[in-house]
Amino acid sequence: MKEYYSEKLSANKLRRCYDIASPRIKQYLKAEIDFVIEQIHPSNRVLELGCGYGRVLKELAHKAAEVVGIDTSLDSLELAKDYLQNFNNIELHQMNANSLNFQKDIFDVVIAIQNGISAFKVEPELLVKEGLCVLKPQGKFILSSYSVNFWNERLEWFIQQSKEGLLGEIDFKKTKDGVIICKDGFTATTFTENDFQELLHKMKLKGTIKEIDKSSLFCIIIK
């Protein structure tokens, strides 16, 4: 199910997921973006991995000098062009996060938020390696996943997406412990604080892990 977001849940269907979000989910989404914006300086060049239709890019473009977004879904990128048409500091590319086709050391900040470290279905070590490669020295790689404290709200959001036909029917017998499984084979996992710590230890990296809004778990790695 590696291509789920590029083939089944892309463009307007992906946008619909956010349109139907409850007030608590929208609070989580805003808190996540607000935290990222706090890490960015006006002169920064920022790369977002898995930009979708441009939901986050639109907010980042108000703060950063230049914002670049990549996604595997051409449909989502086409929608992003329309969604972001009033911005002249945004660049879009169809690209996979497991093989970034950029020069080394050119971004001040790289982000993979909204559980990208799990949703991309890319080996975490490879994802981090690729992100760090394109970062300038002292640049920030910002990753986020769901907090364990947000399980009920997250599950309810996925149930709503399933009812809308955006996701397959949820298999409630298998859905538990931070993992949501649909009967069509789609699986949504998370990255816990221990997972982030183990990844940092394995790659011999230093990072700061912080929970935001009792909904997001962030890991910030300084190159």
Task: Please explain how this structure is put together.
The chain is α/β, with parallel strands linked by helices and 223 residues long. It contains 9 helices and 9 strands. The strands form 2 sheets. The protein has a 7-stranded mixed sheet with strand order 3-2-1-4-5-9-8, sandwiched between helices. The chain is globular, with a radius of gyration of 16 Å. The chain starts with a helix and ends with a strand. The mean pLDDT is 94.
Name the features.
two-stranded antiparallel ribbon; 9 strands; 7-stranded mixed beta sheet; 9 helices; Rossmann fold; 223 residues; globular; 23% strand; alpha/beta
Number of domains: 1
Helix proportion of residues, in percent? 25-40%
> Which architecture per CATH?
3-Layer(aba) Sandwich
Terminal-residue CA separation: 32 Å
Run of helices and strands = HHHEHEHEEHHEHEEHEE
